[in-house]
Known about the structure:
- The structure holds two protein chains of two kinds.
- By secondary structure, chain A is mainly β.
- Helices cover 0% and strands 46% of the residues of chain A.
- Chain A contains no helices and ten strands.
- The mean pLDDT of chain A is 97.
- The interface between A and B is medium-sized, with 23 and 18 residues.
Amino acid sequence: NFMLTQPHSVSESPGKTVTISCTRSSGSIASNYVQWYQQRPGSSPTTVIYEDNQRPSGVPDRFSGSIDSSSNSASLTISGLKTEDEADYYCQSYDSSNRHWVFGGGTKLTVL
Amino acid sequence: EVQLVESGGGLVKPGGSLRLSCAASGFTFSNAWMSWVRQAPGKGLEWVGRIKSKTDGGTTDYAAPVKGRFTISRDDSKNTLYLQMNSLKTEDTAVYYCTTMVRGIDYWGQGTLVTVSS
Lengths: 112, 118
C-alpha cells in the first residue's frame, strides 16, 4: 500500500505559473498512471490530466502534467493563472497490490 | 456525451441501510468498470469500491472502511450502477459520486448526499 502526499494549499497571482506536487510514499510513481482532478466549490470533480500527462479535450493547454522518478512524484503545472482556476486539485493513482484507487489529500489553489 | 446521474441519498439513522443508484448514458455501460467515490463534508476524496464489467468477471473490490457493509452491483439491462449500504455509521456521511473511465478519462456524476445521523 502507498500514499500520495500533496501540499495542503498553494497561492499565486493571476498570470503566473504554479506547480502542485504529488509524492508517492512507496513503489515507483511510474508504475501506475497518475490522474489529476479539479473540483470547484460546490461542484463534482472533473479530469484535467489523465495518464500522467494527457489533457482531455476542452481543458486548456495551460494545464500540464508530468512525473519525476528521481523524486517519485507527479506534478500538475498551471501557467497563465486565471481566477477561474481557483479550486481544489486532487491527484489519483492505482494500487496494483490491492486493486484500490489512491487519492492525494487535495491542494487548495488560491489565485489572488 | 457521458452522463452519470446519482440518486437515492438522504437522511438515515446509524445502523440503517440505503441504496444508491447511478444511471449511466453516453457510453457502452456493459463494457465499463464502474466505481464509487465519496467525499465527507469539507474533506477530500475517498475511493469506496469498484465493479468490473461482466466480460471481465464482474468482480468487486472495496476500501477497508466499507468492506463487509457495502455492496456494489450493476444492472446492464438498465444501464444502472448500485451501492447498497448497510450498518451505516455517522462517519459514512458524505457526498457519493459514481465514476467511470471512457478512453482513459474519468467521468463523474453530480453526487448524492448521504447523511447518517440520529
